[in-house]
Amino acid sequence: MGKILVFLFDGMTDYEISFICHVLRTDAGKDIITVAYEDRVIKSQAGFNLDPDCTLSEVVDLDVEGLILCGGREVDIKPSLMRLIKRCDKERKLLAAIGTAGTIMLAKSGVLDEATYTTPLTAWTTKYQYVYGIQDPFPRDNYIDKRLVRDRHIITAQSIAFLDFTLEICAWFKLFQNHQEKHAFARLVKGA
């Protein structure tokens, strides 16, 4: 059973990753492991209390198939998280980030320097500079104005594209036999 890490933090936008975690666990048989900086309850933006399975320090050497990062308004991006992101990038494991915080985590770790991506942050304002304490971490020449962008093992998505995000991660793990099967599943979940 492959292991997928999901990073939890206070104020995370849990709806962006709930469906993909459900599909990966129930349909793909993946072991979803939630991680956080500390062993304590995390409160999502929706008000859900989430209890992480382990801390980042406990998964440093764990063999994983990927890392999923969700959005949120603010996240403290510590060196331990950046090391994990860089390790997954170096090993060409799935790096899937959605929304504001998710894409900022990838940008700050430097993995978007050589990849095309999307983000809801089309401009780095003084507010973001104040909140994150950094200059714009995004390599703006690599930005693509789309709902979702996949560049090799890196998937980035706008906050509203959580169904597209789910479909593309499923495609990454080859859960569809062909394009028609992916399209049929998309019609089913989107109702179109």
Structure description:
This is Thiazole biosynthesis protein ThiJ. It holds the Pfam family DJ-1_PfpI. Strands 5-2-1-6-7-9-8 form a 7-stranded mixed beta sheet, sandwiched between helices. α2 crosses α3. The chain has a single domain, classed as Rossmann fold (3-Layer(aba) Sandwich), CATH 3.40.50. The longest helix has 12 residues. The model has no long low-confidence stretch (mean pLDDT 95). With 192 residues, the chain is an alpha/beta fold. The chain is built from 6 helices and 9 strands.
Please write out the topology.
Layout: E1 3-7, H1 15-26, E2 31-36, E3 42-43, E4 49-50, E5 54-55, E6 66-69, H2 79-90, E7 94-98, H3 99-109, H4 126-132, E8 148-151, E9 154-157, H5 162-172, H6 179-190
Helix pairs in contact: 1-5, 2-3, 5-6
Organism: Turicibacter faecis
Domain DJ-1/PfpI: 3-170
InterPro entries: Class_I_gatase-like, DJ-1/PfpI, Prot/Nucl_acid_deglycase
Question: Care to give the gist of this entry?
Answer:
With 192 residues, the chain is α/β, with parallel strands linked by helices.
